[in-house]
Specification:
Elements: E1 5-9, E2 15-17, H1 20-26, E3 30-34, E4 40-44, H2 45-57, H3 63-73, E5 77-78, E6 86-88, H4 91-96, E7 102-108, E8 111-116, H5 117-132
């Protein structure tokens, strides 16, 4: 499980250091792909395999299923960590998530989210407003 929040700097060549605590959970093996809400997702390979099987089992006739599969699968790239725990984020993914120099690497239980720092904090502000507006969490049964 991935928890915690780390602030990192994206190198000029597009390399990002993955926090040590997260590298242990990845075992140097994972998949980076488009995420939702303006971030990137980094999944451990074991979870990605199960998730991919679920995507493959979705009905081909369902437009939402096709769109989600396209979003996540067509942009996916294997995680390749160097000796210093850095990985190259491809330019198309950096552009898609609007990653600049300051990046947030956040644990979200089954995955790691990679955010542009400004985007992340704007998104957190929206979340706080939504949660404070009332019964947003009541349907989750937690």
């Amino acid at each position: 499980m991935f928890t915690g929040l780390y602030y990192h700097r994206l190198e000029a060549k597009g390399r990002l250091a993955i926090p040590q605590a997260f590298r242990e959970g990845l075992a140097s093996d994972g998949v980076i792909t488009s995420g939702l809400d303006g971030c990137l997702f980094l999944f451990p390979s074991s979870y990605w395999q199960k998730f991919s099987e679920k995507l493959a089992s979705l009905p081909l006739t369902n437009q939402a299923a096709r769109n989600l599969t396209r979003l996540l699968v067509q942009s996916a790239v294997a995680l390749d960590l160097d000796g210093q725990g850095r990985t190259l984020i491809p330019e198309y993914l950096r552009n898609q998530a609007n990653l600049k120099k300051q990046v947030v690497v956040a644990g979200s239980l089954t995955r790691i989210e990679i955010w542009d720092q400004e985007t992340y904090h704007r998104h957190l502000d929206l979340i706080a407003q939504t949660i404070n507006e009332g019964d947003a969490l009541s349907s989750l049964d937690i």
